Amino acid sequence: MMTDTALTVGLETFTHFEDRLQQMINQGSLTLMLSIGFRTGLFEVLGSVDAATCEEIAARAGLQTRYVEDWLTVMHTGGILEYDPLFQTYRLPLEQAALLLQRGGTHSYATSVQWVSLSGKLEDEIVSCFRAGGPLPADLLTQLQSQLLEDHSVSIMNGLFKHVLPIVPSLIMQLCEGSDVLELGCGSGQTLIELARTFPASRFVGYDSSAFLIDKARRSADDEQLENVTFIQRDLAEIHAIEAFDLIMAFDVLQDQSRPIRVLDQVFTALRPEGTFLMQDLARSRHREINLQHPLAALLYSISCLRSMAITEPDQSADNSRWCQEMALQTLEEIGFTAIDVHALPHDLVSDYLIARKPGSPAS
């Protein structure tokens, strides 16, 4: 029989959790509208003016006033925007702008926010995977991820040149002088096209398993009239190259592979002696207690769940374990890489950046 104290504690817990649920629903709605603000350019418009009316904001963004008014109301209700009832103007405070604008602050949360809307687009397919097993339709997740990256190409390229490339010693100088570079999982080719444009003395190759994305990348390269970049449709576990590249990059792709260990083994073979492997991976530990300390822990696990559904079969060589930072480091070392280092970069809260070097040829 329950005591009065137990009933009181139970009621308090019930009420507290109900409050949390209501907050989650509100925050979920706000997150969706944040994503819409990023994709429509509304935040960029707000960041370019001190204060403006709904009509002025809609006109600058080229959007329908009636819907912009609803969006602005949500942003004000959610504490994102300030509203002046006398002049009926909206303002994006500098503190918010630093985190929301792609050009402002150390990093932008735009990509993290859009992972939520991306999951929503896949909800029916995700439910089907829960019931019948995976994988997700072959190119669906890849195409949606590519769209997400294209929506934020400016901030991604800024991060690449400001934060990612500088962590590899002397890399910028080597690219200026001329290097052979391979990107695994190149998608629609944005990264390589920008690198090919910036470093004309270097030669760039991109592999991706998606015919749709490779075709898109080739068209973009042709439009730019770039002759130092090539895109090839290929299984990332079948690189089939021997000491052909000075630098191999894999941004956000290893955790999607059914055979990540084979991919890394192929990378080692394809690198020249003293070549560098640069890898971006989800900042996920084998230990749950470590992951729970991450400020975006729920998002990390959501992304991990979504990506696991894109894998057609488990990697038997990894004993069916989930891919994580510890496994990546262990595999790199066992394959023969040296000078392995892990970086957490300020522009990307959900990723780790790993650098590994292939040893030089033994002295004869």
TrEMBL record:
The S-adenosylmethionine-dependent methyltransferase Rv2258c-like winged HTH domain, residue ranges: 29-100
Gene3D superfamilies linked to this entry: Vaccinia Virus protein VP39, Winged helix-like DNA-binding domain superfamily/Winged helix DNA-binding domain
Superkingdom in the source lineage: Bacteria
Pfam family, one: Methyltransf_31
Domain Methyltransferase: 178-283
Protein name: Transcriptional regulator
Origin species: Gimesia maris
